[in-house]
Fold L-ribulose-5-phosphate 4-epimerase.
Amino acid sequence: MNRFEPRIEVAVARVRADVARLHKLLVRGGLSTWTSGVVSGRVPGADLFVIKPSGLDHSELAPDNMVLVDLDGQVVEGTPGAELLPSRGAAIHAALYRHSPEIGGIVHTHSPYATAFALRGEAVPVLSTTVADEFGGPVPVVPYSTPDADLAADVAATLDAQPSRAVLLERHGAYTVGARARDAVRAAVLLEDAARAVQLARAGGADIPSLDAHDVEAIRARRLSADAARRDAERVAELATAGSYPTSRPGNTRPGGETGSWTTPDSNGSTPDNDVRTRTQ
Ligand SMILES: O=C(CO)[C@@H](O)[C@H](O)COP(=O)(O)O
C-alpha cells in the first residue's frame, strides 16, 4: 500500500534510485572505504530524504534498501529499507536539510586527500581555476569540537559564511552539499581532486601562492552565470516536453528567480510546494 500521494511516491522512487546509484560513483572515485561514503537526497515536494543504510557494503546498495527519513531524522515506518538503521550521520543530514531549503543533496566522505587536509586543520587553498570555479574560495575547516557538540550547526554556520559547497571536518573528513544529490557528489569528487592536486604539487617542491582574490571572484561569477543559463535551458526543455510552455526563450522562464550558487530543489522539475508535510498520520 502506498503511504503518500502518487506524485510523492514517484519522487521517492526517483530519489531512491539516484541515491543508490550515486554511491557507486563514490566507490569508483576512490572516495569510499568499507561502509564510509554517504549520500543522501531530499525528496522534492516533501519533508523527507533518502539516505543509505548503516553498515551495509556499498556493493549491496539498491533503491529498495535505501532508508526514507523525515526531517526530524525519524525513519518512515512501513517503507522499503525501514527495517535497517539509517547511516549514522542521518541526524546531521536532517539538520542540514532543515537548515536550508536550498540543500537538496548531501555527501559525507573520508576521502583520503581531503581528509589529510582535515587532519591538518588546513583549508584546501585556491591554487587552481578549477577550485575557484567550483568552490568560489578555499574549502574551509570546521574546527574539531567534543563528540557531544552540535556538529550540524557548526557545518551549517561554516557553509553559510562563505561560498564553498564543501567543508572539511577537522579530525574527520568532509561534507558537501548541492541542489541535488548528484551536485553534492560532484562537489565531493572535485574536492578530493583539488586536495590531491595541491598535495602532489607540494610534493614536487612547489610553493604555489593562492590565486588573486579578484580573479577567483571573476571566475566564480562566470560559473554562476553559466549555471543560471543552463538551468533556464533545462527549465524550457522540461516545460516544452510537458507541453505547458510554448517558447524557446530561456530568459523568460525563471519563476523562482534563483540566485547564488545552488539551484533550489524545486528548480529541478519537481513540484514547488515543498513545505507541505506529506507523511500519513
Ligand atoms: O563518519 C562516520 C563514522 O565516523 C560514518 O558516516 C561512516 O562513514 C559510515 O557509517 P554508516 O553509514 O555505515 O553508519
